[in-house]
Specification:
Chain A is mainly α. Helices cover 72% and strands 0% of the residues of chain A. The radius of gyration of chain A is 24 Å and the shape is globular. Chain B has one domain: Cytochrome c oxidase-like, subunit I domain (Cytochrome C Oxidase, Chain A, Up-down Bundle), CATH 1.20.210.10. Classes of the chains: A mainly alpha, B mainly alpha.
Chain lengths: 304, 516
Amino acid sequence: MAHQHDASTYYVPEQSKLPLITAFAMFLTVYGLGSWFNNVSAGPFLFASGFLLMAGVMFAWFSAVIKENLAGLNNAQLKRSYVWGMGWFIFSEVMFFAAFFGALFYVRVISLPELGTANNSELLWGGFKPDWPLMTTPDMAVKGEAAKHLGPEGNMSNPGILGWLSWLPFWNTVILLTSSFTVHFAHTALKKHNKKQFNIWLGVTVFLGICFLILQIEEYVHAYQELGLTLHSGIYGATFFMLTGFHGAHVTIGTFMLLVMLLRSVLKGHFKHDDCFGFEAASWYWHFVDVVWLGLFIFVYILS
Amino acid sequence: MAHGPAKGLTRWLYTTNHKDIGSMYLWFSFAMFFLGGIFALVIRAELFEPGLQIVQPEFFNQMTTMHGLVMVFGAVMPAFVGLANWMVPMMIGAPDMALPRMNNLSFWILPFAFAMLASTLFMEGGGPNFGWTFYAPLSTTYAPPSVTFFIFAIHIMGASSIMGAINIIATILNMRAPGMTLMKMPLFVWTWLITAYLLIAVMPVLAGAVTMMLMDIHFGTSFFDAAGGGDPVLFQHVFWFFGHPEVYIMILPAFGVVSAIIPTFARKPLFGYSSMVYATAAIAILSFMVWAHHMFTVGLPFIGEWVFMIATMAIAVPTGVKVFNWVTTMYKGALTFETPMLFSIAFVILFTIGGFSGLMLAIAPADFQYHDTYFVVAHFHYVLVPGAIFSITAAVYYWLPKWCGRMYDEVLGKTHFWLAFIGLNLTFFPMHFSGLAGMPRRIPDYNPLFANWNMLSSVGAFLFGAAQVLFLYIVIRAIVSGRKATDQVWEGAHGLEWTVPSPAPYHTFTTPPKVD
């Protein structure tokens, strides 16, 4: 660094190549994905290149930020900027899920009943019954098995409270709720200067996250192979996979974030009781993912 | 940060400086303004006379779509982010934006996103042709293959907006100089803080909407397909839940700009500062409760029409507070009419006209007549052109001396104003009449009944376009050879940004100023 910097002033970083490369990597990723979806042969390659570049540049970016903090460049005010940043990023994620929850509520409460009961519905979709979960799509009510959107043969609905012990979503709820506690225990241990317990509880959280993901994959395989519940099977399948799929993607990201924090703690000895923003940000994200799951469990699984 | 900018191109590519990034945003949006303007002129050239003369209907649809998308996401929004980048840190006494590297990322996503969006015009099947509101199933079942790239362009420019908004919030809430309490902040900072919240709340919803489109197009879901149990109207609800706050995203910072300029040239403090803050917040909150007024004719239940009509009309109250305050600020002021003030006064008058036509559209039973006519086109161009565009223009004239240290030519500036003022009214005022007479929007050909109004509109549009070329010349001339500006620049200007030299040093307020 060309000049001395101390923590009395706000640290404004020097010029950096990282943002431009990140923007290019984002472009390459989505351009590759778009080409892939339109059956351009170079698509998957472009996507993979963009994704790898993105991973590399994010690694470099986070390394730079961590080094700056370890070098004592970040004063309390700068750390608050990171807190605001992560907090409002999570809020934006909440709104992203709100779009899909909104779609689910709208379909269940307004548009699907309308399809079965409106004045012209007998004419358009004769014999269609707006039940939820939607097993017979309007298309099927008219065309039978020749329909484009074939409903599922089985669904994920609530088997009644007595059947919960053999119901996978219930165990996923238990796992994820437990993991929110374990990540909190890790935080408490860190506050009490107990790095060993911190590592153990964080490790348990990561383990629970992986368990959740394995069960989620198990559920998807079950849905696709045994229930015929797919993205193609009408609005029930669409909302089910969209909500649980994006949630699963966020659990994957959250687990990865916590795993990185664990590795930083174990291998590099990072995090002190009063300096652990990376971990705290990851744990807020984890709590957010947990709250979204509760919404899913209630509105996608129980009330169906 | 002891030193000045880096040399050469890397200064711009790798910069972390809020002033550099602000300049890049402003030049980018200027470029997009001309690109979107060219699309508009293709539309107006085709509509100069009835019949098909210049372009095919398929291409005409691509022009209306791309004109809207480029102007909304490429011209107006980045211009306001550019102004925020330049002015917010200087107005609150901060050394830079809170997260300077992410700031540069927010900018550099945009050239990539718009290159991808513009390239769809050259793809097989043409570019997006379903209007900037991209209603399903037109944008899903019946869309050209390039829609996939349109979707991903929206995704990444949305990411850019969210990161930009987070940065602005962190800056305003965390970086104010000691003594700069919230209720001492300039109104431009307040309006941007509220706008940033709107952005974080609705850009993810837009991402959700285009993601559902993507799934419907490529993965066989049926969100917007009644055959599978979905509903095309669902798209409209999700889109307008984003779309209505979006129009306030494009106008709230404009309110902030005008609230800075009018007191300066009236030589009086802004009338009713705190009511301005509360009115801005009220408009922002109401903007989440009115989205279905875009959908009155889609078949909402009566209670829905009624609720959305009343909520929409309620917005006139805080907006009226603002207009009252601007007018009262000017009342008995020592007014002078430099170019920024001319644009600001035109803003107050013409934006109010756009507001009144908005009230007409808010009346649900009347809207059944106006819906999808040129009356709607007239309405939203009256709030966006003399609203958003005029305020951005006013802001450029007002702050350019602070940015580059040189004055623009006042005679040329006033010429620009009058050409733009006449051109804009000539373009959009006749649309009220052609719309009320029944001319539908988004059509390349029309009943000869509407010929006179359309010819006037087209003449006005080319005049307005020419005025903007003059604007470009004025800006470049000021930067290259304008006479030196003083630090204060304007006799009646107050605020931290006027206490630093002109041009503003590369790093301002490395140690925070004391605000009383």
